[in-house]
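QA checklist item 7 of 12: single-chain prediction sanity check.
[x] sequence parsed
[x] length recorded as 153
[x] structure emitted
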Amino acid sequence: MRRTSRVAAYAVCIRDDDILLARWTGGRGSPEWTLPGGGMEHGEYPHDTVLREVEEETGYLVEITGLLGVDCISRTTARRFRRTVDHHGVGLLYEARVTGGGLRHEVGGSTDLAAWHPLADVGGLRRVGLVDVGLRLWRERPATGRVTAQAGE
């Protein structure tokens, strides 16, 4: 079995009871809302990854105001030629605030829209689980930087 890993960094941007999300088009189904962010380039510092990815996906310049925590996923999937892949993803989640730029959509990337959504409406959005993890880290601020799974997750 082939093993892969990916380290990524994401921003939790909250402003006036709204959260900044990007619509991810890279999944196998319909597009889903996600936190702006993405994979680290070789030799890149995670903090710099967040700044780059948020600007690429949303048009905004942000300032990191804190490290919220870490999320990990492990998935085994069948890939090309029926080869099984054991994938481990590590996501670093940062709190960020907008300092400049302007809202725009990414062209030719893994997202196609960027938008502010009321926090109260997030539960009704088609979204990836990372959005919920990011919001829990933002609300709970666990000392360990990790949220535990809740019933049904």
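[x] summary fact logged: The radius of gyration is 15 Å.
[ ] second reviewer sign-off
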